[in-house]
Task: structure prediction
Amino acid sequence: MAKITFITTDNKNITVEGTSGSVMQLAVDNSVPGIDGDCGGVCSCATCHVHVAPEHVEKTGTASEIEEDMLDLNDYSNEYSRLCCQLEISDKLDGLVLQVAESD
Amino acid sequence: MKKSALPDPFEEARVNKGYGEMDDQNDPVTMILGLKDVRKCAHNWKTFQSGAEPGRIVIPSEVNIRDTRQIPFEVDPPEHKDFRALVDPWFKRPLEADYSATLTQQINDIVDEMLTKDSIEVVEGFSLRLQSRALTLLLNIPYEESETWISWGTHVFRSEGEALDGDKANILYDYIDEKITKAIENPGDDLYSMLLAATVNGKKLTREEVKGVMILTFAGGRDTVINAITNSIAYLAEHPESLNRLLNEPEITGRAVEELIRYFSPLTQMGRVVTEDTQVCEHAIKEDSRISLCWASANRDAKVFENPNDVVLDRKINPHVAFGFSHHNCLGATHARQIMNILLKTLAKKVKSIDIIDYKENIEELGEFNRKVGYNSLTVKFNGR
Result:
């Protein structure tokens, strides 16, 4: 069981728990505002864009090349950006803090 | 497997040059073909403008058949963001349980009807009807209204030929004008009424702006949805094992939807007007000319997609741009995805196999390229489980 905290764009903390599947699906299932997951998690949209807390980057690892291609052209991305559809829930992610990214 | 295949006519040009060229009513288009280039151009809204003369970013150009600006499709940032924020919640309604349940009922009803017939012409007999009925949900208006739209046939802007037809387009424009007038007199819970009551940046929407959103809603989701449905029926006819797989592994349905939409790319391309002399793929492009973002080509880019010319039903990473990219991604994408998701589930559950009896392909002529985009007709028989 991994406990993951989302910080919404209006600075509310939402902590949810999951055991498997993607972090995006966990957020969608718990109605985390700003994470829409339009494409269902195949990396075709960027509606699951989050910023990983800097101290937690070793939990998540860095973005894949395909993810980076999406994020490069996103005006709100930075070096801590991930698409959370590409984050698989495991014990390793317990305590993870993710800031939901702004979007146009 | 030949009847359902949709070849990629852009491959050679994409690999060798990265762009293609076509004329369109004496307003030529440089077609951008590679996925990364398409994304970059889509993102660069200052150099590659959407908010040009109304109709000019559409290919074939609609400059000669309409003056109304489609909103938010033909609006650039920063205004685009405000209009988009207004309409986005409405266009996310397909995710709601009631909407989804009613859409499921509609799709079940029409599939059940197909199963009773010896043969059915899919384009008008299935896809157009499904698209039109589902649109009543998107607009939140009575189901019966769909009969009017079905009666228009598959072409809203064309007669049977390929040329755009102003008289034909006016049927839609006049219809929308009439509905706006009625909504002004008698506001309801429909999209017209929501728009008429809305403000953007403190200003009420004008009648013309309301009309612009409605034209986009009607026209943008018609051919595209019909093509996506029809092409997928043809695919499943030639791949009955996929029907079985979707039945036995329903968890891959979402990925199958994305993959079918990538492979068939119901909207081939969308134009932009160039605002300054520039270069793409080391090719000079002049101010006040047009480029196109060729979604269909980008979606077959072998630099990004393994086996791009195959339908891989469970493709896990699928960064396709069939719904566009960046600011102007497709407003109706949620609705389209819901239709496809429910359709695949329904067909998998009820249909054992589909036989293709006859077909006539619909080929777009795009300068140096000819692209199959779907079917003018597709006659099939649905065999029940």
Q: What stands out?
A: The first helix of chain A runs from residue 23 to 29.
